Input
Amino acid sequence: MHRSFAFVLLVFLFSTTVGYAQKMPKEDVIDVPAVGEGLCLHNLFQTNMVIQRDKPIVIWGWAKPSEKVTVLFAGQNQTTTADSKRKWKVTLSAMPANAQPQSLVVKGSSGTLTLDNILIGDVWVLGGQSNMEHPIDRVDNGQLEIVSANFPNIRILTVPAQNGPTEKAGFPRLHEWSSWFGRHFRKGDWDVCSPETVRDLSAIGYTFARRIHMASQVPIGVIDASRGGTTVETWTPMEVLKQIDTPEVNNLLSEWDQKISDWDSEKDLENRVKNHYSWVKNMEKQGREVPKDRTVPTDLRPGPAMDHNRPSTCFNSMIYPISGLNVKGVIFHQGFNNALGSGSAGAAMYSQIFGEMIAAWRKAFDDNDLPFGIISLCTEGFPQNRDNYLEKTFNDGIYIREAQYKTFLDLYESGDKNIGFASSFDKRRSWYHPQLKIPVGERIARWALATQYGMDRAIKWKPPMLVEMTVDDDQIVLKMDTQVKAVDDGDIVGFSIAGEDRKFQPAEANWLVTGKDKNNRPQTDRKTIVLTSPHVPKPIHYRYAWGRNPMGNLQTTDHDDLPFATQRSDSWKMEEVPAVFVGSLDGKAMENKRRFRGQVQKALRLDDTKRRLDEARAFIEQNQEKYEKERAALEAELAKEK
Output
């Protein structure tokens, strides 16, 4: 009887939910506005939230001008008065972690607000673009994580996407329409982590939170402020971008100013109407029915002014609204949209902006030492191998990935103890949303646990780092700060070397042989790698993991899954390798960028072919006589048996 009733109820709830979803328009549906009328809290503060431990507790909202507001939480209370713009704010003393649910009460002359089930623990912000945003239900082994996600002391919040150049005071709670997935996503609400609520959460963010919580036993809150298809400059405040003052950044800002100035909404509408009637005419010509929801455009679009990649837009609309909240730290995974054909100028711009963006986020959360973990750009495209090696080295994404590691290295070597890094290039897929997200979340969690939770003796996080490079006639010698090996215990692959001609070739990589043991076996220094190539007699520079989906299997020897990061010793521009293209950046060759890129890739492809032919000839020369002798011996042996 109970089962039958439960089944009927489930069917009813499902049917009404589906009906509601069908009635919802293909646009955002706001449940709670960013700033409400009368006495209200910022939407960061809700039932089920986590408040940051061991830091002052800042709480704010709005009320009638001059209205007195009292906030009570965990035995503390503060009273303040709303200003002329309705804003009020109080600061309570820091508190230790507490997994016991608490209530927060806000009293004003116009009413009382009560929030329940609040925990005190650590709050982490997730930043970046779609590979951070990518939900747990769409990754390898995601369903296993979902059914296991019974963590009542993990709380999750996803910040809705907003647009526009102005700083937003808050964010709404809403059902956000996604044209990518063709459905609405509920955003802006704090939820208790469960198999029912976790499905749409960032896979990397969930895995990270799960590991941190399991190890620390501290309540964890994650605020997902990532957004697909975004660039580093949209996550950076405008005043910061203007202060960078380099040709690359200045050109970027000027180009956006021009695009916004040139936009004509009326002309855009006119073109869209023409295209609509042309499309309808073509459909009728084919005898196909025109969908009823396909109507003549009538709206005036704002154009580039409201583009989500307009510089500073995502900072203003997704980070600024949550700024002022005390949090534990940030993890950030981005880069794809900065790797779409801007070449060496785009990579230089990324390098100039990224470190400043990190500083701006730290300032936004009122902590100049805020832990910030960088996850490097993930893979995309078919894998690099020895046959296509050089052709695959011509890709903007490699230089963005290098810039991310260099930004980390610059901060780390300057004494920043709260900067972290994790490579993701070895978690390979050809799709630009590689679905191996869970291992990446685990890897950045290593950094957080080791550096922020006192587990540095038990857990290693830092990738193997280059200590010294020396050039010795026909070889390059790299000394590491730890022992390294191939992840599969086979040959070390992923290195290339080049001479003055800038023609890189895959390198043979071996440990430095230091002598022989008593059994005449070679003894090796596993902290030192020797690079050679018969195709590069006088090498001067090396590169490693230099592909968008690169060869590269070097990692630490201690089973910690920590790869050697994408890096190089040269500073040659992308468009000037090999040396035959030096000077082309300012010459006629760059007048047609697409053609120029094709010429570079053709040259690299030919170099790949030449190397393979040379290796084939060498193989034949070395093995022809041996093959003929062994074949003759085998035939003689078979003849005897007959």
Observations:
- The two ends are 82 Å apart (CA to CA).
